[in-house]
Amino acid sequence: MNSTNDIRTMLIESAARLFADHVDAKTLEAAKRAGWSEELWMAVEQADLPGVSIPEEAGGAGGTLCDAAAVLRIAGRYAAAVPLAETGMLAGWMLTGSGLPFRRGPMAAGPVHDDEAVVVRKDGGSWVVSGKLARVPWARVARRLVLLATEGNRDLVVSVDLSRCAIRPGRNLANEPRDDVMLKDLRLSASEVSAAGNGVDRDALRLRGALARAVMMAGALERALQLSAQYAQQRVQFGRRIGQFQAIQQELARFGGEVAAAVAAALSAAGTLERHAAGTAARRDAMLAVASAKIRAAHAAHEGALIAHQVHGAIGVTDEYILHHSTLRLWAWSEEFGNETYWATALGSAIQARGAEELWPALTAN
């Protein structure tokens, strides 16, 4: 095992212990009511997990995109109600990639949707930003909102203090905050605005967001499979544990195959995006990998959640049982940063544009 894998193994083990110590059914229910878990956030921030993949010289913890993906997989497994992906993989990446400081505290990032725009204009020695964003993940609990904005024909990265914004609360299926944010002629200092760095653009933001959700879905799928297998060994029906019935065994085996495929696709996409972060041709390769991962994770989420609830029966849909924290997130995350239809269309268009002769090389690359 090389040193990189040694470090990642230690990181995964440390993250798993942290989440196991701070997440249980009681804390998940409390987070569902409050919108997030502030106590868990304090623990992950103290462990520098939001700064994984952010360079140390920029205020992060160092590491690679694959290291960050490994942590997000664990967070998804534990249904962690904190903006871990948004703070590091999205907002932190935009800030440090554009020469702005990486700040401590939870952050949100945007725009999330294609039809949204944030406009910045220069006014003397300061900047004025305006725009409206819908369903921004974690906006109401974040300290700052990091945005890709436009000034004429150029892209800028903008860091906004969310206490100055009007926020209309919303939520996804899993009761995670998805809030509308209104920015109306907010005046910003020069230290809060910078030209977008090389490779920092909306396409890259969408790719990183989709990758984050695919990796988190892989973790949630692993948890749902684990719960289902455990329940099948505990529940007795007709004098036998239901895990002894061939039909249940077959469904669990199929579930295991879906989980393995989703995990493999997500981690492979993380590696591809890490290697091909910039450049037109490289970005196409990264898009193919991330699109495939998001599609595969969404398919596994549909099939896996169905099997999990079939195995559990009625108890699986109750608030008192922990399964729904995973399956509701699977359904919600499937729709975020591009759903299965969006990425299938993008993938098909990209393959068609390459031409028939490039199909097999594209399928077997990396």
List the helices and strands and how they pair.
Layout: H1 3-22, H2 25-34, H3 38-46, H4 65-77, H5 84-96, E1 107-110, E2 118-123, E3 126-137, E4 144-151, E5 154-161, E6 166-168, E7 178-188, E8 193-195, H6 202-234, E9 236-237, E10 240-241, H7 246-275, H8 280-312, H9 323-334, H10 340-354, H11 359-364
Parallel strand pairs: 1-4
Antiparallel strand pairs: 2-3, 3-7, 4-5, 5-8, 6-7, 9-10
Helix pairs in contact: 1-3, 1-4, 4-5, 4-6, 4-7, 5-6, 6-7, 6-8, 6-9, 7-8, 8-9, 8-10
Describe it.
The chain is of the alpha+beta class. It contains eleven helices and ten strands. A hairpin with a 2-residue loop joins strand 2 and strand 3 (126-137). Helix 1 (3-22) runs antiparallel to helix 3, helix 6 runs parallel beside helix 8 and helix 7 (246-275) packs antiparallel against helix 8 (280-312). The longest helix is centred in the middle third of the chain and has 33 residues, at 202-234. It is globular and about 80 Å long. It starts with a helix and ends with a helix.
Question: What's this, in brief?
Answer:
With 366 residues, the protein is of the alpha+beta class.
What is the CATH first-level class name of the largest domain? Mainly Beta
Order of helices and strands: HHHHHEEEEEEEEHEEHHHHH
Number of strands: 10
CATH architectural arrangement of the largest domain: Beta Barrel
How large is the radius of gyration? Answer: 21 Å
Task: Give the amount of beta strand, in percent.
Answer: 15-25%
- Summed up, the domain count is 2
Task: Kindly identify the CATH topology of the largest domain.
Answer: Butyryl-CoA Dehydrogenase, subunit A, domain 2
Assembly status: single chain
Distance between the termini: 21 Å
Q: Give the overall shape, derived from the CA principal axes.
A: globular
